[in-house]
Amino acid sequence: MTELVDYADAVKRYDPVLGIEVHVELGTRTKMFCAAEVSFGGEPNTQTTPVSLGLPGALPVVNGKAVEYAIRIGLALNCQIAETCRFARKNYFYPDVPKNFQTSQYDEPIAHDGWIDVELEDGAVFRVEIERAHMEEDAGKNTHVGGATGRIHGAEYSLVDYNRAGIPLVEIVTRPIEGVGERAPEVARAYVQTLRDIFRALDVSEARMERGNVRADVNVSLRPTPQDKLGTRTETKNVNSFRSVERAVRFEISRQAALLDAGQTVIQETRHFHEDTGTTSSGRVKSDAEDYRYFPEPDLVPVAPSREWVEEIRAGLPELPAARRKRLHAEWGYADAEMRDVVNAGALDLIEATVAAGASPAAARKWWMGELARHAKQAEVSLDEVAITPAQIAELQSLIDAGRINDKIARQVLDGVLNGEGDPEAVVVARGLEVVSDDGALLEAVDAALAAQPDIVEKVRGGNLGPVGAIIGAVMKATKGQADAKRVRELVLERIGV
Amino acid sequence: MTDVTRLSAAALAERLRGGEVTSVEATQAHLDRIAAVEGQVNAFLHVSADEALATAHDVDRRRATGEELHPLAGVPIAVKDVVVTKGLPTTAGSKILEGWVPPYDATLVERIKAAGLPILGKTNMDEFAMGSSTEHSAFGDTHNPWDLDRIPGGSGGGSAAAVAAYEAPLAIGTDTGGSIRQPGAVTGTVGVKPTYGSVSRYGLIAMASSLDQAGPVTRTVLDSALLHELIGGYDPRDSTSIPEGLPSFVDAARAGATGDLAGVRVGVVTELQGEGYQPGVLARFQESLDLLERAGAEIVEVSCPHFPYALDAYYLIMPAEASSNLAKFDGMRFGLRVNPSEGPVTAERVMAATRGAGFGDEVKRRVILGTYALSAGYYDAYYGSAQKVRTLIQRDFSAAFARADVLVSPTAPTTAFRLGEKLDDPLAMYLNDIATIPANLAGVPGISVPNGLAPAADGDGLLPVGFQILAPAKADDRLYRVGAALEHLLEAQWGEPLLNQAPELRATELA
After folding, report:
1. Which residues of B touch A59 (CB under 8 A)?
2. How far is A29 from chain B (nearest CA, A)?
3. Do β-strands A111-119 and A80-81 pair in parallel, antiparallel, or remain unpaired?
4. Is B334–A55 a contact, with Cβ atoms under 8 angstroms apart?
5. What digits encode the pLDDT tens for the residues A400-436?
6. Domains along chain B?
7. Does domain A439-496 have CATH number 1.10.10.410?
8. What angle in degrees, to the nearest 10, is found between the helix axes of B476-494 and B249-256?
9. Segment A376-397, tens digit of pLDDT
10. Residue A69 near residue A168, CB atoms below 8 Å
11. Whole-prediction pTM value?
């Protein structure tokens, strides 16, 4: 394997350029061209029709909902929506493509010429230009059995599951992303993450990376300076987590820099990313020999979304993630750094829901970014996987605000909720944690404490208020911390008569 | 009692309704006829006697209870083997699909079943409908009932021969470049290629998606109208299906049968006659024109200057689409699977071995042509140019239909040739469709009506000739009006249907 060039070194001497293709599986009820159900985890080859199996005689019909979703995506990415566009056939023989051609948009995408701003963790913003967003159908899933690698080479046999064949996809293709320099890996990651957030906000896909709902192909090339023409690119396929996107770009920059340093050329090829090692390896060489013989799909008529429909969809678009962040930032009054931390921690939704349930923005942030973040880290789960709801946090905070528990007790209540003992109120009752505010009960404890420490009583009576803390401490201890310390102090001083 | 197999579908339907004959009797009579003549004709690839009789029983039972039935209920029908039929083997005439039993019905088959027509079986055809003689079937030749040494036309030679030999009163054909009309012409039967999009293609094993259209094959114009109304109409499963309803074909056929064509402008296409057409074919054509004129039609000469390029464009567009449509036949999911005789057994090599063994020469020829025409760097010169020609041909039609209500020509340039005669000369074979292809390229409807006999090209005997009528898209009713008028006028002259002049087939035992 090629020696790598240290990343920092590589980006000092070369200017990286990115191109990213993101595929998103749409969350429609049925497939792109037939009524087969779209759902995750079905028995193999149960979610099929003659159409998605490519049986002789079957014909495709375009899923109107998928077109609507594609338009939603196009509009959210500030694209033009085509007045008319067509599907084409991409011809190639492979067993996971039942017809031996994929029905995809080729030279007439439904959406084109858009852009999206992506924000990095430190708040820097890069604009990524979108060349096109087009509709296509997914392929089936091959499983290669036997052999060491799980790849087709060396396998004893292969199984094909056509449940995925025909699931609607939208592919979003960027123009070359230039001028990102050493931040290329972060930009790539943030771009894919931004798209994922948009898909979720638009409600067009569950957009779960781990299920392959969102898949990225990352093109990377290097050139000596931004003034030079684009270098030869590689395309790393199916990079399936945000972290992998970042690592794959980083690795390719180091690898290509090493080749160029050694006076070698970068081969235009597809590459595979390996999660375990963080490296890429050569897939197949892309060349002119690969001829997909595209031609317009004669079984389908052009898709011509009316301008009225497009405007109707535009008017119905939800607030997009960037706009929402901006609005919440203003509403909550957080400092810029606080807001970034909240976003980076994935706490935005949780805090919004907590505020909606009645907590103040400051209190909501305090809980989620403090105690709960610590808890999540310890349990090695993400914040939204912590076993407590925003409503429960809001309830907990309201108990504090009402003076029914204090901060220290609140942590015990929190433990109870996380422990599955119910809502905060129920935990308080069950564990008997309510602040003792009954003066009668308190007085008993106060009198006992006074009687136990007459010397201190004397000192206080003599005008030295310093030692009174010892009395208060004894009362708190006797009431297991459930007393309101302020009230205890009042009662102690009253009893002593100062 | 008359032999029910000699009745038209309309006449048989009348007797079924009147209780003079049951569907079981009619179906059995046709099955008997099939058993008697199939040894000579070989029109069927599969005969579904049990299923047909079960349908017939059911229709008779329902009729007995007074249930309202479709006008054609109980009338048996044959279906070209390129149309998928649930539970019945469907091969498209190819070894590569031998043994495949579809798990679903084509839309037109659903409609046939819903209407209660017993399906007698699946008819022979050129492999994947590629041919003009049915000699490219992987399962043997079909013989023309007029002369068993001659071809029945193609690709739908089986459907045409079955109807001509009284094995079925009705049949389904498909027409990509003339595969319904040309067999109709050479067997003395009626064949209709409907407007593209007027009959659902869902369940037709596609050759060329933008050209394929299923339609009726019958002995009378009225029967075609009845069958066309049954199988036609919007189907949401075919994106190219026409949503709106069309004027009644049956009404038009009945109106035409009065023989009155006053005010109808009939355009004779200059480019579809002359060189390459047998003299006898042209003579019959002229006589038919004279008949139409006497019936009140106005005959006008129209020019369609781009028609001479139609064949060239067709042989780029059709193979291009076919090369892609036939890619799915790879041995992976259904039909034939052949392992390579030596070396590793990989998916790619199994696909290659299967396609090598499963496809016949004509299919391979067209797949290779089409693959080439779509290749990067050649696409614009071939497929792109052909699409431009297609547009020009559509404009020719528009201009011609501004001057005439229908256009007419001989259906095929020649009478039936001998089996084997043109098998080694693909270009000569392709010329059979010279008059029928323009309609497919433009999506307009056409009908072939038998209009007499002409001496065979080799001078050996008299053979049927067809008269083609073309109408604007969605004006299929005009085909039926003019077609029925011509049929009426000709039969008045002959005193009987043309098919009555066909030689009697000797009954033989099926092997």
Report:
1. 201-202, 237-239
2. 17
3. antiparallel
4. yes
5. 988 888 888 898 899 999 999 999 999 988 888 877 6
6. 4-307+390-501 (3.90.1300.10)
7. yes
8. 30
9. 999 999 898 999 999 999 999 9
10. yes
11. 0.89
